[in-house]
Amino acid sequence: MGILGFTCRDGEKSRIENYCDAYWECRDGRPHIRRCDPGLQFHQRLKQCSHLKGPSQCVPYECLGERNLAEYC
């Protein structure tokens, strides 16, 4: 499902804020939320999911929503 009121160019990809494994991908002029496979993170410069080297400042997408971050992440 696309995000209302937001348009983009097909093929565009961008990480969702500070979340390691979530990104949006544009199809038919609309962004759609995607997730990387377990153990991978979205690499903003490469525009693809990959293993990142070194420590990361972001949190997994599963931490979004109403879950308690201390309990789940």
Automatic annotation (TrEMBL):
<feature type="domain" description="Chitin-binding type-2">
    <location>
        <begin position="5"/>
        <end position="60"/>
    </location>
</feature>
<dbReference type="InterPro" id="IPR036508">
    <property type="entry name" value="Chitin-bd_dom_sf"/>
</dbReference>
<dbReference type="GO" id="GO:0005576">
    <property type="term" value="C:extracellular region"/>
</dbReference>
<dbReference type="Pfam" id="PF01607">
    <property type="entry name" value="CBM_14"/>
</dbReference>
<protein>
    <recommendedName>
        <fullName>Chitin-binding type-2 domain-containing protein</fullName>
    </recommendedName>
</protein>
<dbReference type="InterPro" id="IPR002557">
    <property type="entry name" value="Chitin-bd_dom"/>
</dbReference>
<dbReference type="GO" id="GO:0008061">
    <property type="term" value="F:chitin binding"/>
</dbReference>
